[in-house]
Design a protein that fits this description.
- The protein contains three helices and 34 strands.
- It is mostly beta strands.
- It has four domains: 97 residues, Immunoglobulins (Immunoglobulin-like, Sandwich), CATH 2.60.40; 97 residues, Sandwich (Immunoglobulin-like), CATH 2.60.40.10; 88 residues, Immunoglobulin-like (Sandwich); 94 residues, Immunoglobulin-like (Sandwich).
- The termini are far apart.
């Protein structure tokens, strides 16, 4: 009896289960065994571009308002059954996509997470760290010593100070301070954590000095601005000096510069050469008064510069504005015989000379009766022009040589070729 009752109960339970199963959507109660047995992994990354070349990383530093692309991969597949997935920024959801572009404005260190809730309700997370920081700012106008300060004492401590700002008011700043003597002898090159520096060494008299400051924060974000300052040291007793630089108006020319200084009565006081690569000059131990400076480019006579008049004050350095040499003289073209009428030859030779530096063959041309001649060569100021002498010339012909120097000055000169035959000979009479 007991057995029959148990059997009846079992059959009732089975029948009820089959009835419910048959009347329901079976997909709601079935799941892929692979979903349950296979381990799920998620990997979140951040990048700046969707292309395959840009590196994907787990942390990044950006400026406020910059956009980043957040990407994720799900193993074994993004199509695996799940309850939910989303991105959070500092714990607050902002997207329900696997890949999303996001702009972050608030400075600080932020946590970006990709959250994946699997079929069973288990939650997986992969976390990224995004630092949003503004680069520091430097005041390029207000600093000490002020630009072109004169009479800096030789043996006193010199205080350098400047204004710097962290727009976020959150980060520590560093300053790279450099001090050097003209033209390029570095005296100090150091890293500071304050916007000031005290130099305790000695200076040379009547010398120009340069100093520079760049700033960056703890994330190596550099300020766009750079502070550049200069100052001049005092002379001993009442001595003064001058400082300046020279250059040509044409790039690529290497000049040998010479300076002559005359006093108000045009008596020569000093002669100097600019020997360093920066083509600067410095003349010291001068008395106060009026002077005239003359500059020459000895190896490039076509380059000339205007004279400069100036007045020197006691114990100061006068910085002369950059002296620029201009070449306004075109090349000189002459025949090898110094005659404008030439005999016909296999190769004609012409002297093409310029006082503004070497001439490029690419800037030379030869034309016979307005037709370009080929095969020109140029060496040691001589232009060689091949000529086809098999042709019969019974009248004078015109050959024109043209050349241009590196400063764009052009010269064109025509020569006459004597006939190599008479008119009857040309026609076989």
């Amino acid at each position: 009896m007991i057995f029959n009752m148990r059997l009846s109960s079992f059959l009732w339970v089975m029948a009820t289960a089959l009835f419910i199963y048959g009347c329901s959507d079976s997909d709601e109660y079935l799941f892929d065994q692979a979903d349950a047995s296979e381990r799920i992994e998620i990997h979140a990354n951040v990048t700046t571009s969707f292309d395959s070349v840009t590196v994907q990383i787990k942390a990044d530093t950006i400026k406020p308002g910059d956009s980043l692309i957040f990407l994720t991969s799900v193993y074994p597949s993004k199509s695996i059954r799940n309850q939910d997935y989303f991105w959070t920024l500092d714990g607050k959801p902002f997207s329900n996509e696997y890949s999303v572009k996001k702009t972050i404005y608030d400075p600080g260190i932020h946590e970006v997470a990709f959250v994946f809730v699997d079929f069973f309700g288990d939650t997986l997370r992969d976390i990224l760290t995004i630092t949003v920081a503004s680069p520091p700012e430097l005041d390029e106008k207000n600093f000490i010593p002020a630009p072109e300060t004169q009479n800096i004492e030789l043996d006193r401590f010199l205080q350098f100070a400047w204004n710097a700002n962290d727009p976020d008011s959150m980060w520590s700043l560093k300053f790279n301070f450099t001090l050097w003597e003209s033209p390029s002898q570095i005296i100090v090159d150091t890293i500071l954590d304050r916007a000031q520096y005290t130099y305790k060494g000695q200076f040379k008299p009547l010398q120009k000095y340069h100093w520079q400051v760049s700033a960056y924060n703890q994330f190596d974000l550099f300020a766009k601005q750079t502070i550049n300052g200069t100052f001049f040291t005092a002379g001993i007793e009442d001595e003064s000096g001058i400082y300046g630089s020279l250059e040509t108006s044409t790039e690529g020319t290497e000049a040998s510069f010479r300076i002559i200084l005359k006093d108000s009565s045009q008596r020569q006081i000093r002669e100097e050469r600019a020997t360093n690569k920066s083509n600067t000059f410095s003349i010291k131990s001068l008395s106060k008064g009026k002077y005239t400076l003359y500059a020459f480019a000895d190896n490039l006579p076509d380059f000339v510069a205007d004279s400069i008049d100036f007045t020197l004050k006691s114990r100061t350095v006068k910085e002369i504005p950059t002296i620029v040499f201009y070449d306004k003289v075109p090349p000189v073209i002459t025949g090898i015989s110094e005659s404008d009428t030439l005999d016909i030859a296999d190769t004609l030779r012409f002297i093409v000379h310029d006082g503004g530096g070497p001439l490029p063959l690419t800037q030379m041309n030869a034309q016979l009766d307005d037709k370009n001649l080929q095969g020109l060569t140029f060496s040691n100021d001589t232009l060689y022009v091949p000529l086809d002498t098999s042709s019969v010339f019974w009248s004078y012909r015109i050959i024109t040589i043209s050349a241009a120097d590196n400063s764009g000055n052009k010269r064109k000169k025509s020569f006459y070729l004597r006939p190599n035959s008479s008119l009857p000979e040309a026609f076989g009479e």
